[in-house]
Each structure stands twice: as C-alpha cells, then as structure tokens.
C-alpha cells in the first residue's frame, strides 16, 4: 500500500470453531475471495497458511504465494489427510515463503516450486536484553504476545511459569481468555 499498490484484504474473522462451523467459515472465505478476485482482478493472491487458506487460494484461479509456518508443515508431515490436501497447494503455488531455513528443509516442496525464506526470527545483533534495573535481581522475565484462546494454550504457559517460583510473566493479547 505504501508503494501505491492496490491491496484488498479478505479475512476469516474469529468466531466459533467446531466440526461444522469451521468448514462453513472457510467455505465463506472462499466465496469472499472469489468475489474479490472477480471485482478487483488481482495479479496475485497471498495465502497465509498451507491449508486451509492455500485451498482457498486455489479456488481463485489466480497465481498465489503462500506462507509455510512450522505448525502447518508439521501437520502435513504427521497427517496423511493434511498431506494429501497440501500437495496440490504446493504444486500450484507461484512461490512458497518459509518462515525459517528449518521450515524450508522440513517442507519437502515438489521439484520446481520456488521456495523463499523470510526469516521471522529475532535479530540478536540488533535486539538484546535490556540491562536490569537496580533491585530486580536475576529472576526471569517473560512476555507473551498473541491470541488469548484455548488453542494457544496460555494456561499451560502460566502453569509452567508458576513452577519457576519467581520472576515475571506479562501476557498481552486479545480473545476469549
């Protein structure tokens, strides 16, 4: 957008998830994506996960770029069903972005698929721990930033932190929790 490109967002809004509502939500996302393609005629579609948003991208019949994260690649490797759904997504992608070199090695992309790594890690040359204020001791400090949903298992993080017996845990986010 800052470079003058016309960018349209078609997003899946958070809501109830379950065996009926989740497929219905993604079917709605596919309908909205196809409608946006018909109206705006984009050069490329970007899908944020291999499955199911990669399947949504396929339905648009527009070249698409997709991001592979650790969890979706792990799911692909563990589940024959997810693997079968992921193969056509990878085969038809104009390019696949991996969030790390590790994910790109785990992906096993088909021959000829363009794979790029855009590392989402922390640049430890630029970002370093801040000096501790007087009297803060050496207790660990943790910061969680993300969705406050059961799926993110913030409860387990809190339980693990409690076992440390000290320090600080700051939780920042939004959601039902």
Describe the structure.
The chain is α/β, with parallel strands linked by helices. The protein has helices at residues 21-40, 53-60, 70-78, 80-92, 101-107, 154-162; strands at residues 45-47, 64-68, 95-98, 115-117, 141-145, 168-172. The chain has a four-stranded parallel sheet. Strands 5-6 form a two-stranded parallel ribbon. Helix 1 packs parallel to helix 2 and helix 2 (53-60) runs parallel beside helix 4. The mean pLDDT is 86.
Briefly, what is this?
This protein is of the alpha/beta class.
Tell me the total number of β-strands. Answer: 6
Identify the strand order in the major beta sheet.
1-2-3-4
Alpha plus pi helix count: 6
Distance between the termini: 33 Å
Report the C-alpha radius of gyration, rounded.
20 Å
Q: What is the strand content?
A: 5-15%
Helix percentage range:
25-40%
Give keywords.
single chain; 177 residues; alpha/beta; 4-stranded parallel beta sheet; two-stranded parallel sheet; 6 helices; globular
Would you spell out the secondary-structure blueprint of this structure?
Elements: H1 21-40, E1 45-47, H2 53-60, E2 64-68, H3 70-78, H4 80-92, E3 95-98, H5 101-107, E4 115-117, E5 141-145, H6 154-162, E6 168-172
Parallel strand pairs: 1-2, 2-3, 3-4, 5-6
Helix pairs in contact: 1-2, 2-4, 3-4
